[in-house]
Amino acid sequence: MRIMGLDLGDKTIGVAVSDELGWTAQGVETIKRETLTKDFERLKQLVVEYNVEEIVVGLPKNMNGTIGPRGELSRSFAEKARETLGLPVILWDERLTTVAAEKMLVAADVSRKKRKQVIDKMAAVMILKGYLDARK
């Protein structure tokens, strides 16, 4: 069973997919957001291509654990994903995943331009990996 991880942003959606055993997470792509309909068309294509059976959406919480406006947008997106894609959708705490992804890319000496292109995909990998590790 493959699981898809999503890191939602205003302009992009980072996408990662697990292996069939649910041990590893690999970055797949960064979707440039246009309309919700087009976003879900692309996600549907990826679900079919990778035979995804479950989706994990990053839920940005405030450091005190409360849900702010960004978190509410993620909740709304997750509900729409459940309806549109017909799959179970789990919200997963994503606090500091983008910061951690940025630090990892800086440590790997990835250029600023290249980091901007892959940061959301890396954050999706970290969200999915955290979920996979917690399931074990």
From TrEMBL:
Its EC number is 3.1.-.-. It comes from the Bacteria. Keywords: Cytoplasm, Hydrolase, Nuclease, Ribosome biogenesis. It is found in: Cytoplasm. The keyword Cytoplasm applies. One of its GO terms (molecular function) is hydrolase activity. Belongs to the YqgF HJR family. Could be a nuclease involved in processing of the 5'-end of pre-16S rRNA. This is Putative pre-16S rRNA nuclease. It comes from Ammoniphilus resinae.
